Amino acid sequence: MRQINRHPTPGMRLMLVMLPFVLLLAAYFFGSAVRLEANPQDKLLPGLQQMLDALSRMAFTPDKRSGEYLFWVDTLVSLARLLVGLGIASLIGLCIGVTAGVFPLWRASLSPLMTVLSMVPPLAILPVLFIVFGLDELSKVMLIVIGITPMLARDLEHRACEIPPEILIKAQTLGANSWTLVLRVVLPQLLSRLLTSLRLLLGSAWLFLISAEAISSTAGLGYRIFLVRRYMAMDVIIPYVLWITLLAWLMDLALRQLHKTCFPWAEGGKA
After folding, report:
1. Which residues contact residue 152 at a Cβ distance below 8 angstroms, ignoring those fewer than 6 apart?
2. Inside any domain, residue 108
3. Residue ranges of the alpha helices (H) in the chain?
4. How far apart are CA 214 and CA 232, in angstroms?
5. Among residues 91, 108, 105, 203, which one has the least CA distance to residue 153?
6. SS3 136
7. What global pTM score does this model have?
8. pLDDT at residue 243 in the model
9. Do 39 and 151 have their domain in common?
10. Domain containing 243 — which CATH number?
């Protein structure tokens, strides 16, 4: 049988999913054990107990100066920034995507603009954002918005342009005006695509957030990682990185389930 025609059974699929993670963990803990045996004070590859102790200290022990549980405070601050940025970017991207994708006159102006803006490295203009918006929350949110919106708008514009013209012609034949077309025909298609695009851009959004927090912040997951790096506190950094990864995966899972619930017809079409 050709390999292209072989499909894993449910049990084999689970094993194949877990195998890379098991191998990575085994390699890490083997390397950690070797280094700690040679030098019990080694900080580069902390053992499991060291990371659990650090996590307990950060998450379940109040900070001596502020009395706060730093791990949870950092998580809430970062999630608030990320969700606000994604919400604003989604709204702006959807409006621009619909406008450029449906109305040819607006497309002639907006499409080239979004293409150029999507090529600007957002991290390169981070100092400009700090100068314009200050060092508080707004600059961090704006970095996410500026980094995500052009790509969202371009993707939604392309999806709008892919809608078969026959559908739009039939709707107009039945008396639909421009706004009826947008609300009843185009918008449901683009809302489905918006959730998919957000899933694809979650990694970039987290990157922009962590970068902004690392440069100028007093709380947040990125701030904490870059604060403790001065002391080579890998027992704190690694759990924080794993926590960010878990949060991103949970957000992706939530968006996927929302897509299945709200747009089952799109899931069927993909199948």
Report:
1. 89, 90, 93, 94, 97, 194, 197, 198, 201
2. yes
3. 10-38, 48-59, 70-102, 104-118, 126-133, 137-161, 165-173, 178-181, 187-215, 221-228, 234-262, 264-270
4. 16
5. 91
6. coil
7. 0.87
8. 96
9. no
10. 1.10.3720.10
Q: Tell me what pLDDT residue 269 has.
A: 47
Tens of pLDDT, residue by residue over 152-200, are 999 999 998 888 888 888 888 887 788 888 888 888 889 999 999 999 9
Contacts of 114 (CB under 8 A, 6+ apart): 96, 100, 150, 153, 154, 157
Instruction: Indicate whether 15 and 69 sit together in one domain.
Output: no
With respect to residue 21, please indicate whether it lies within any of the assigned structural domains. Answer: yes
Place of tokens 């002391």: 231
Rounded Cα distance between 93 and 95, Å, is 6
Ranges of residues in the chain whose predicted pLDDT is under 70: 1, 268-271
* Amino acid 163: pLDDT: 85
- Give the C-alpha distances (Å, rounded to integers) separating 60 from 54, 70, 80, 98, 124: 10, 9, 21, 47, 37
Residue for token digits 């689970």?
A: 14
Residue 52 belongs to some domain of the structure: no
Looking at residue 268, its pLDDT comes to: 58
